[in-house]
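Archive entry. Fields below.
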Amino acid sequence: MLSFIARRVLAAVGTLFLSSILVFLAVQALPGDVATQVLGRDATPDAVAALREKLKLDQPAWERYADWMGGALHGDFGLSLVSGKAVGGEVGLYLGNSALIALVTVLFAVTGSLLLGILAGLYRDRWPDHLISTVSLVGMSVPEFVVATVLVLCFSIALPLFPAVVLYGPEASIGQLLPAVWLPALALAVVMAAYIIRMARTSVIDVMASEYVTTARLKGLSTWRVVTRHALPSALLPTLHVIALNVAWLAGGIAVVENVFNYPGIGKLMLSSVQNRDLPVIQAIALISAVVYVACNLAADLGAMALNPKLRTRGRTR
Amino acid sequence: MTATAAAIVSVDSLSVAYRSGGRDVPVVHDVSFDLRPGRTLALVGESGSGKSTVAATLLGHLRHGSRLTGGTVRVDGADVFALPARELRRLRGGTVALVGQNAGQALTPSMRIGRQIAEAGGDVPVVDLLAQVRLPRPAELARRYPHELSGGQQQRVALAMAIAARPKVLVLDEPTTGLDVVTQRGVLDLVGALRDELGLAAVLVSHDLGVVAHMADEVTVLRAGRIVEAAPTGRLFAASQDPYTKRLLASVPRLDDAGLAIVGEDGEREVRPRAVVAGDAPVAVSARDVTVDYGASRAVDGVSFEVRRGEVLALVGESGSGKSTLAWTLAGLRAPSGGTMTSESGDLARPARERPVSLRRRVQLVFQNADTSLNPRRSVGDAVRRPLRFFGTAGSRAEAAVRARKLMSDVRLDPALVSRLPAQLSGGQRQRIGIARALAGEPDVLIADEITTALDVSVQAEVLRLLDDLRRERRLACLFISHDLAVVRGIADRVVVLRHGVVVEEGPTEAVFASPGHPYTRLLMAAALEPEPASAPAPDAEPLVEEVPEWTDAAEPDDLWTDHGHGHRVRRWRPAAREGAS
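PREDICTED_STRUCTURE:
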């Protein structure tokens, strides 16, 4: 069991290492280097050379990579080309704001869609199932910015419950941001939920038709007990990875929604950095996305282990 | 039928139907029976007879989409289908308990054994229950998960779960079908002992007439949802009245058949003498000291045998004896780790993909489960045509189509079925397609891996007859793998008995069955259940161990065998000291 965990963690670290190289190389491969980006088209060759030296661009790529990685491990991602401030601190600020949305989204989307999916599975082919399946299918088919716009129309304009856009900067406190979190979170949740609901429904139906669930029923157990003790652990197993993929998808999906609501999160920072060609920031954000992906999948693997004794007891003799 | 006051189970004119395509399809029609405490009633029939459906109604359970269309089921005085939900739950487990066919799938994989048993209610501690079903180290076992147990152990756990709340009626739905003979015998003995100990009434669902003869007091024979005959066990087996019952009984292969039993429409039984293998028939396959390893464990250990053209050689043993591994290795699906395997047309030690096509088509495997080994989305004609084209035995598309129809009629199937999908055929028809597919390459050697295990007895008899016909017509060398000694007795010319990957006995079928030399062979034969009720009025579970001496292996590297003449030889063994039991 420990070796299984160790292997998974090692694989995760390895994946991160490879993706950091990819991120670094991708940024290197962009046309023109940072010095020309910063100084603009009219810069004199001397000025470019001076800046290149200052930014250590004259050193070989692997040395710069080692430098960058070494810094990144300590949270130092270099200086932003636009603001001149430390990238780490700036990204951290925006990341915190996004985490607030992500947390709310995951909490509601995952629990809500699991419940709906299980409900649909249990009421297979009856009206709750038809209703849930149809609505989730609609949610899946509509792009998130449309959902976001519709939500704004309904809940900030027609029925002014929540703010349509955020008027604060990245330094806003949680208290200031909290009212603005709900609509973006809901928009994201609607899109995410569809996949989780469908997966949960299918696996609940499969498991409820299994022999061991029938046996449990015929043991005279209550439906509640049959579902929670016998069916769910196995039914959640395939759903876990779908949840992980969807949570990881948030890392990108959040960008669009944040821009609709002008929310000062990582997605907004990413978009403006791309527009300003602020390469160190882009590099840092790309690496953080990779961390989110890897962490989500690692969590799903460990969760699967908790639900499936076959994975835990591997290697134990019969 | 009127319910006597003493009856604990009383089924009266029960009819069940399921809805399909907007119509009610009856699955059970007007079934009635009574069961008194302490008695065992067997529901017998082939697949589709509705026997499991009837049994499940005792627990008030109907499959998804099925419904009661008439009649009542009364258990311990209560009308099961009229009970409110809470009462029904109390009935399930409390008054009636079920032991299903496949314990491996009937136990929840994510829960520990102990908790699953405890959940079933009752006041008996889990450890005592596990001890009661004769499981070793019950305290430790209770903490295990189902996948950590063997099939026999899982079935014992299912039994413990069923008797936890001390029910009055036990419903046993094919309780030993997935188990091999020795394990089956052990579980049946246990069921019999528990039934007597706890004074249970039992309903036993089975297609295995040997099991029924051994366990039941009364038998009800079902066919297509209707009762064809109901009688006390002794009378049914001695003098059955209905032609269907007669045919069913006659289809069961016996340990003392001197050849393949051919069953007529009226249940007339005729034993066809074994085909004579010509003395000069060439050797089709020869294996020498074959060894196969799965990682660190050795599945097959130094096995040698020869099969001649037109001969059927049976590989016999329990699950885990290495017989299927050996078959797969011969077919080139696993690489041997030692020894040589040759056929008339080349070296068989190479995996299938490295064998030249001419060799590959000469050795063909027929799988145990025809339904999972055929592509469900391709027509069965396609399944037969593909190897024809692939092996080049048919030149053109048109020729392949003609040959495919010919092959289908060769395996006694209506060629009009070519365009059907596997799911649209019966189990026996699918297995014939499996055989036709294997014959498409015009093989010399056919490896049949438990090909009749999943089939009903009457269908099994037909498939066995087909195989026997084919080997006569085509002079096929056939390697027949089975754990069913009675089947082997009918079809095989020679027998090789495997235990833990080692050959313990081999020889001509007649010689081995007449005087089995090895205690393990005797154990297998003693465990096989014949469709004949025990002579004693109450079928006692005779303890198995006393029939077979304790033994240890006494084979020396240069002195492996005791020779009994005519190729019948037995691996050396000697009686063991008591504590050194194997």
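CURATOR_NOTE: The two ends of chain B are 51 Å apart (CA to CA).
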